[in-house]
Amino acid sequence: MVTSKKGSALTLVMHASVLFLVILWTIPTAGLFISSIRDKDQLSVSGWWTALATSEQRLVERALDPTHQQFEDGRWVIKGNLLPESDGEIVRFGVSSLEPEAYAVGELVDRKDKQIQVFANGDYTISSDQEMSGRRGDRIFFTAEIPPRFTLDNYREVLSSEGLGQSFINSLTVTIPATIIPILIAAFAAYALAWMKFPGRALLIAGVVGLLVVPLQMSLIPLLKTYNLVGEFFGVGSKTYVGIWLAHTGFGLPLAVYLLRNYIAGLPGEIIESARVDGASDFDIFRKIILPLSFPALASFAIFQFLWVWNDLLVAMVFLGNNEEHLVLTGRLRELLGSRGGNWEILTASAFITIIVPLCVFFGLQRYLVRGLLAGSVK
Amino acid sequence: MGQLASALVTMILGVLACAAYFYGSNALLDWLFPGKNRPAEQIARNLRIANRIRPWLFVGPAVLVLTFYLFYPVIDSFILSFHGRTGEEFVGLANYQWLFGSDEFYESFRNNMLWLIVVPTAATFFGLVIASMTDRIWWGNIAKSLIFMPMAISFIGASVIWKFIYDYRSGDDPQIGLLNALVVFFGGEPQAWITIPFWNNFFLMVILVWIQTGFAMVILSAALRGIPDETIEAAVLDGANGVQIFFKIMVPQIWGTIAVVWTTITILVLKVFDIVLAMTNGQWGTQVLANQMFDWMFRGGGDFGRGAVIAIVIMVLVVPIMVWNIKRANAEMEGR
Q1: Domains of chain B
Q2: Residue B271's closest chain A neighbor by CA?
Q3: What are the tens digits of pLDDT across the range B110-169?
Q4: Which of A129, A221, B105, B166 shows a CA-CA span of 20 to 30 A to A376?
Q5: Which of B77, B87, B164 comes nearest A344 by C-beta?
Q6: What is the ipTM for the molecules in this complex?
Q7: How far apart (Å, rounded) are the C-alpha atoms in residues A127 and A75?
Q8: Cβ contacts (< 8 Å) between A211 and chain B: which residues?
Q9: 3-state class of A100 per DSSP?
Q10: Is A70 on the interface with B (CB under 8 A)?
Q11: According to the CATH classification, is domain A155-377 in 3.30.530.20?
């Protein structure tokens, strides 16, 4: 705009710094995603930025037990492979945990009365003059260069055995109604606050603006108390889906009313006046004129509310509880952080599942989101 | 799946009930006070009455919900703060005395103040810088979209992402956390970052800055584009350089927007809870008010009185912003 004419050096610096910032902002999420599709053995020993490089791993496997021995050329032999599924390469091996890298591949090692040999492709032979005995096979320590492996196993595991699948459904169950109910209630109120004259209107608007910033924390204890009473009265307990839908409705309503009122108040007054002159009632005006015209604002709020409810942890923990069958995705992730703190293959895959839906909504409907943000803040 | 189906049915029922309420109550009003086919005098009277009642049919549900879920709880929290564990016996100022006498409170208050200073400042600053740069390059929109993206990620998801970055392995094991890997690469000593008292607060704040910068950027970018070109052209003619134009011409014109962004993030910061809960749960000197309140709500079966007192403190911190907001909104309406 202004500086573009002032030499290309400055422009270059600008491109470089924006690129740097973009990388800085995307790398955390990228790291999470890449980690979630890596093999879990590789994930735990090397950083995700090495995902494409061959990784060197120190592993230990037990050889086949003596029941598999065969008599060949006058010796008892056990044959097997240490890397049955991967196309890795063994560089060194050992036969005791004290010296796991003692020998090069191909070397013939004496161990008690046996001779052990390990080859680069993972094949090993254990041979002996006498018949071998014992219940278990020998342990072989080896260092292998494993090529990068990507897999969806982590996702399969968290969706089934870690309960993420159930939580996904719970999150949907909470989010969809909690997004739609406040829109309906707010749209009517917004119309009345924008275009109908009645005493107390200014006070109500001021009230909504005030409630906009009331911290959620103020509501938790009184509502929990009331919910306990109501739940007891109906004998259904205090943690119900209806309860959390209404709670989210209440907490989202100030923003909904505020956003929609601003938008609806900005619609051209002539349309509404002429409809009134034609004898349309306020209900008809709302239904036939206001609702269709306010679609952008309704969409903006719907996206906000959806993201907020889907990403919420506090309200879900207080009003839906922490029991297994009610946990939403955020609650489940928090629980996994506690119980599987070091298992990054579980955590990264779970985290990605919890953020994938909001990310899709975000990239798909970004236009409306931005419009809503601008309407809600700059006025 | 059955659960989802029942949720859908409930949702449809709920929506229908809402629609039925609005439709039914309006129809009832029209039936009680008909505005057609009556003597003119009566029609005028009926319309007057109906017009007085109808607004309340429209705002009724919203007012009810707001009263029950936000207005009444504020008052009830205030009353509860003078009551004991179960919220039944009156204990006077005991909860307040406890609060102001406890070290935990000073720790979380201090941390909250740190958050309040650092996060809005950093997010607004980065947002402003990025907005002004991306507006001038051809791939600016892609860049903005990517920096805006963390907005869509939950606090708890973001906490996992960053916990992975701060991950620490003891001994000679290779570091799989990005930060420690970088530290090792440059010859430093790896650290368990989130357990280092005081500084760990900043590692937690980074997460919120990462999330909120996009918000600041989007709004400030719109404001920057709204600046009239003439003011900038005039400055260029007068020989001002890029930096001068930015700080002396552009920034002063968007002060109002900067203030809005600042206060919006400030309010969010006051309520920050998920990040602290997930990263440290208040250990190693990172406690904040919202997490402390949650803790007291459920600790040992829950202490409603003490929880309410902490909520009141958060509320008191919000009040100045609330008053400013209402004043601003009123000024706008008068300007219309």
Answers
A1: 2-61 (no CATH), 95-335 (1.10.3720.10)
A2: A215
A3: 988 999 899 999 999 999 988 888 888 888 888 888 888 898 899 999 998 998 888 888
A4: A221
A5: B164
A6: 0.85
A7: 7
A8: 66, 70-71
A9: coil
A10: no
A11: no
